[in-house]
Design a protein that fits this description.
This protein has 4 domains: 264 residues, Rossmann fold; 93 residues, no CATH class; 90 residues, no CATH class; 116 residues, Immunoglobulin-like, CATH 2.60.40. The protein has 16 helices and 30 strands.
Amino acid sequence: MKKILLSIVAVGLAGSLAFAAKKQPLKVLYVGGMTDMYYRADLENKDALVKERTEAFKDMLEKYFTTVTAINGSEYNTDMSKEYDVTILDGRPKALKPSNMVKDDDGNVIKYERAVYLPNDYDCATVTIGQIGEDVGRAYGSKNDWYCLCLDAQAHSWKKDHPIFKGPFKVKMTVETCPTPSDAYHYAYYHDGPMPETLPMWRVQTKGYKTDEGFGIGMVSRPWGYTDSPDAEYISSGVCAKTLDAVAIGRHGNFLHWGFNASPLYMTDEAKDVFANAVVYISKFKGKKPIARKFNDRIATREYLKEIGYLVTKASYDERMKSDREWAEQSKAEYKAMMAKKERGEKLSAKEQELMKYGEPEDFKPTPYESYVKRYAKNFFPMFGTDEKAYAQFFKDNYDYFYSEGFYNIFLDEDVKAWGIPNYKHELLDKAISSLEQGKETERATRVLARYTMADFQTPAEWRNWYETYKDKMFFTEAGGWKFLINEEGNVPGNDYFGYLKRVEENKSATTGTETSDANPVVTSVNIVSDGRDNRQLVVKFKIHPGYHIYAEVAGDDPYLPTAVNLALPQGITAGDWKISRPGRFGETGTTIHEDTATYSCPLEGNGAGPITCTVSYQVCDAHICMPPVKKDLKLKI
């Protein structure tokens, strides 16, 4: 009891000390639109909840700052931000350019263009809350991307000396020792050294999605390459379903990502102080756009080698097969018990009735080890097969010479290896330019300069002048595209992403309507199958790219969205019960997933005719990220 009382006193002090500092003379624009409950377009009382959250933010901010204006995202345009010291984006603005599916002449999707919310030259100091950082930042090239919408209520692994924890508003941290989040152990291969059993944590929110059903979920960004440019800094992680260093609070250029979702209605007093300090801190970066831009959110960094190195091991394979075997045996036993219950004439529970739609489980058939390794080794499999030691040695020996293109594809750069210069050292550029000047290995030199810079000089003299002018300010970013950039603001040669992207034809988002890819990991189709008599089945198929999965059932504590199929049928046609291909287990919470393929089918009865609309919704994830949910209509006629 004494310990609990001490904690309460500490929190109380945080609230009382917050306003010992005078209001800061800042003009703050709050742009609302989100809710404290899990945000959905069909959320009941959404407008009232948005209003309540907006008013709570306005009331809190007015206690810290001299001028506060609150508007809705639908009223906002970026010119407004020029009149303020800081803009807080907690709602989605109107798109400057809507999202677009580019199709070829046959109707196949060949490119997905994301919605654009901010102009490329937007340089106003901005705080983004929760998933808004992803929404407005993706097309802009922000490192505050969507690693996972899975951030709960507590922070950990924070930079204790960072200014947002120091002032100007005094912060009295209430730190507890808590168990390490169980999901972090799935990514232990990324962690240097043994995983800690406990972590110091401080509570940001009084509610979270794990303990309060329907409460809004926060967003973490990918840690890999987050700090590989001088315009970005990691500040804190938090309890989430990903790695221990996932970015819950971070800064990239003029953007500060506050990944926690709660409004002041559910913030702790100390979190309010930290948030206010974050607003003051980001105000210092007005006019300082990011230099490194992350346009490919799934670009691999060198850290990815740790994952490949683990997944190709026999230990990884055995662990997965053990889990799959246990799941198959558990499913068999459950099915047997349900069938016995049914034969006794007993009523099945709602949960049991849901499980029956998957049919009888098949006997466990282990995936061949070679197939398992091939799935994760990708382009390295032809070199090393199932020799896990060879992978480890190869990655170690060539660590300095890897580079990435596309989505989580990493390659050995033979050009760089031949010269023996790590590709992150700017001496590599000096070597390439010298080769051009001397007329030696000019093809290799040209490839190196094209691969690792965005400059487009025509003569060795121009390359040399650029290099000598900026070499002391050069840095190498993997997250920003495996490029050398110049740490200088303004129109600097070699920093122009937009000119570079215009010159280079990129196929990163290319796909077809029938084939999956990293850019299009799920392909859906719907058909009616007849046995030639009167029996007709409507069959919905999900084709899932290797390494990805969608969710069948989601346990209450998990933040993912289950797959759903809904039908709009013509008059005179009715649908029977759905039968769904059996999913696999995902972790220990009870969540289940579909990999490779999933089939949803149901019988159709009646003599009607006309159009059928099949609405499918799902969320696709891989080992790194969970993408925003997808909802789309599939149409056919009967």
